[in-house]
Backbone:
């Protein structure tokens, strides 16, 4: 399949792209362009509450090292 951009640098294909869907684009070293569809994920909602005059978020205490390690794993997997 061959695609061309219009005079405003827009690319369109009803067969390949869904309407109103975000994509991440990367230009590879060999000149290829890679499009990755961004999929929304469910994020837990944390409601703020006031305890002893201070606003506090989650009920759970987070292990700082576990959070840092999870972020590193997520970055390395991409």
Residues:
């Amino acid at each position: 399949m061959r695609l061309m951009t219009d005079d405003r640098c827009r690319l369109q294909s009803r067969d390949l792209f869904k309407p109103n869907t975000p994509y991440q684009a990367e230009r590879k070293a060999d000149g290829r362009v890679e499009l990755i569809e961004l999929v929304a994920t469910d994020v837990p909602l944390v409601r703020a509450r006031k305890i002893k005059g201070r606003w506090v978020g989650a009920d759970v205490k987070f292990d700082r090292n576990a959070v840092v390690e999870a972020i590193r794993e997520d970055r390395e997997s991409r």
Notes: The mean pLDDT is 85. The chain has one domain: 23-77. The longest helix spans residues 64-77.
